[in-house]
Write the structure tokens for this entry.
Amino acid sequence: MDFFSELGKTLDNVINQVGEKSEEIWESGKANLEIVKQEDAIKRMYRKIGKLVSEDFAQGQLFSNEINEACAEVQERKNVVEELKSKLRKSKNSEKNTDSSTVEDTDQAVETDEKSDDANDKS
């Protein structure tokens, strides 16, 4: 009977240890998930801050040289995007009679990208 009694105690100890380890893993997983959530929130806030600074720069506000240079590059890239969109629209108008479906697909892609960018900026 001592064998079964010892076996029962050993099994109880193993079950308790497994339970404790499972709880530790669960808590660790919850903590890691919360870390990822917080880091994601920080990245979204950095993006929001960057957008606000860029908008203020576009309205004439100046910051440190490094920020001003970065904002100027953003503005230059925005200008390039606008020029490309303008070219696409002009191309759409000139090719409208020859191949309207391809141009409309291109225009829809541009509009979809703009909406996607706006949706990403809001998050």
Summary: The chain has two domains: 1-60, 62-123. The mean pLDDT is 82. Residues 2-58 form the longest helix (57 residues). The chain has three helices and no strands.
